[in-house]
Amino acid sequence: MALKNRNTVLGILKNKEGKILIGFSERVNSGNSKTVDSHSWKFPQGGIDDGETATEALTRELKEELNLNLNNSMVITELKENVPYYFRDEKGIPEFEVKLHPFLIDYNGESNFEFDQEEFSGLKWILPEEIYNLNLKIRKDAYIVILKKFNLL
């Protein structure tokens, strides 16, 4: 039986000081009672809808989660490969795969956001190496790979 999966965009905002924006999420996203991903830090991300390009999904997700409108003054770099993470069962066997399609956005706008409080309970700007000190739960390895591919680590 094939592993179920979801294609997802992920946006990493980097400011002129070289810090990246990350948010704390209290919600459970696994679709069941497991809390393998709740109460952890994550970048703005969300599913790519049918008929939507990755760039369109990124634009929509950043608007929904951060109330941020992308514009032509922002330099946006797309990683051309997906980076996965997995929801696993009690034995560690993958049950569901999330395929992250990452983007790096050079951001020089306001540093305070009117964020979606159902998505995040708070946001903070961190130096990329501080990622190692955050509770990222199931996303940790994927996030580190992505930051390395963008030459941030």
Describe this structure in words.
With 153 residues, the chain is α+β, with helices and mostly antiparallel strands. It has a single domain (4-149), classed as Nucleoside Triphosphate Pyrophosphohydrolase (Alpha-Beta Complex), CATH 3.90.79.10. It is 15% helix and 33% strand. It has two helices and eight strands; from the N terminus they run ββββαββββα. It has helices at 54-66, 140-149; strands at residues 4-14, 20-25, 40-42, 45-47, 75-78, 83-88, 94-106, 122-126. Strands 1, 4, 5, 6 and 7 form a five-stranded mixed beta sheet that branches. Strands 3-2-8 form a three-stranded antiparallel beta sheet, with no helix packed on it. The longest helix has 13 residues, at 54-66. The chain is globular, with a radius of gyration of 15 Å. The chain starts with a strand and ends with a helix. The mean pLDDT is 90.
Question: What would you say the CATH architecture is?
Answer: Alpha-Beta Complex
Number of discrete helical segments: 2
Helix content: 10-25%
Given helix and strand content, the structural type is alpha+beta
How much strand?
25-35%
CATH topology descriptor: Nucleoside Triphosphate Pyrophosphohydrolase
Q: For the record, what is the CATH homologous superfamily label? A: Nucleoside Triphosphate Pyrophosphohydrolase
Shape: globular
